[in-house]
Specification:
By secondary structure, the chain is an alpha+beta fold. The chain contains 4 helices and 10 strands, in the order αββββααββββββα.
Length: 160
Amino acid sequence: WINQRMDHILFERCFVPLYEDVWRKEGIGHISVRKTFAGYVFIKTDRPGGVYEELRKIPKLAIMLSDQLDQSNQKEEQFLRSIYTDGIMRVSYIEKNSNGRVTAIIGPLEQYQDYIIKLDLSHRRAVAEILLFGQMRRMKFGLWSEKDAKIPWIEEEETH
């Protein structure tokens, strides 16, 4: 609706944040893309007042989060920029030792290992608790391993 009906001079980009969720079939990981935050739309703009006025025209608009450039929102923006590439949070690659313990994480979860509250290696996911949008939120991160198919960006990261 926003991309089709709102004047693009008011915003740079509008998207629904997505993440790569991993599911297993016969022991092999497969990726499906899901919404990270149900009901949220991200709009990058330097004209929040104009965007707000246009959004008020949407029937049943419940909430609009505006970006006041304070320190907490800058931290949230930095976090979101660090985990998303073109609006999608990619899987994080995990390396395990012979005992099955994680020895390394490459990808979006790499910088946020201290926030992990649940690590479910058999289902290829981690849940991290992050302060976001003014409250603690649980976010799922998809995990990829050496048992899964090769992914070009992971291959590049491993060689660096």
